[in-house]
Write a structure and sequence with these properties.
alpha/beta, single chain
Length: 311
């Protein structure tokens, strides 16, 4: 055989091995470790969106809602049927909005509470958590990826596939106490931490408006236009936030507040209203403890009532 042809044949054979592993990894089901993770709560939340009767109030956002909302208080105070669709901020605001568009019904109230970090440019992409959430939990949701996200998505597929062959994904899988499928209640809130003592909270550093990402505001505006055509109403709110972190990022947060107003969104409250003392935070600057989340929920109910009374 010609030496060049023999060399090319060997190269192709060598490449087929990792390619085969990648394909096999894509075909394998989610590992036990992933199946117990909080990302699989999406199935519960989708079932709620399908089966919950009107009048409905639907919350969209990241873990500031997952860990920071007592939905039953909305039901008891306002007679609404709450659905907390939030999982984790790493999924990305754009994807959160796009995957909910088809599930909104006439008469729904949709409250979008995005973490401030969603408006940083570096978060406008496709993170590993989103890749796993799509491929493991809901492959059909891949249609919601934007063209700009596809390059990053494809580049992460080999790492995702190879992870399926790690022994730790299958052996001695220990369910966590809060970041797990079992941590959610019937409304889609994480309630497993309600009776737990506070854990260490590391405050975030300073932030300025240099990294502001206008595309996320435009995505919110597009989402509002879509749900308006369905006869639903969108509101935006502010996440609960640790006092120390807020004091370091006040100028950046003010920029987001001004942009909300400029876009003409129906806004619930102010950023300052949802700043909580450090002692009310559970384990991150976005995750309050039970006292903190009840206080946050009560304020959100009050602000929602104020907006309704204006009309």
């Amino acid at each position: 055989m010609d030496p060049l042809k023999a060399f090319i044949k060997k190269v192709l054979q060598f490449c087929l091995i990792p390619l085969g592993i990648i394909v096999l990894g894509l075909l394998l089901p989610a590992t036990p470790r992933m199946q117990h993770s909080m990302f699989f709560s999406k199935n519960l939340k989708d079932a709620l969106l399908m089966n919950t009767q009107s009048p409905r109030i639907i919350f969209v956002g990241g873990s500031n809602l997952t860990f920071g909302l007592n939905s039953k208080m909305f039901s008891d105070s306002l007679g609404l049927n709450p659905i907390n669709t939030a999982v984790d901020a790493s999924i990305g605001l754009r994807f959160m909005l796009d995957q909910q568009k088809d599930k909104i019904r006439k008469g729904d109230a949709v409250v979008v509470v995005a973490e401030y970090s969603q408006f940083y440019k570096e978060n406008d992409d496709c993170k590993p958590e989103l890749v796993r959430s799509i491929l493991d939990v809901s492959p059909k949701e891949i249609v919601h990826l934007k063209r700009a996200q596809w390059i990053n998505f494809i580049s992460q597929v080999p790492k995702y596939s190879f992870s399926k062959f790690r022994p730790q994904e299958y052996l001695k899988v220990i369910r966590g106490d809060i970041y797990t499928l079992d941590a959610f209640n019937a409304y889609g809130d994480v309630s497993a931490h309600w009776n737990l003592p506070n854990r260490k909270v590391v405050a975030y550093g300073a932030r300025d408006s240099v990294g502001y990402n206008e595309k996320m505001m435009l995505a919110l505006l597009e989402f509002e236009d879509v749900i308006k055509t369905k006869g639903a109403k969108m509101y935006v709110g502010y996440p609960c936030y640790q006092f120390t972190t807020y004091s370091r990022q006040k100028n950046y947060i003010k920029k987001i507040e001004l942009e909300y107003k400029k876009m003409g969104f129906e806004v619930l409250g102010t950023p300052e209203r949802y700043v909580l003392e450090d002692s009310l935070m559970f384990n991150t600057p976005y995750h309050p403890n039970k006292t903190g989340l009840d206080l946050r929920t009560a304020r959100l109910i009050q602000d929602y009532r104020l907006v309704l009374n204006k009309h």
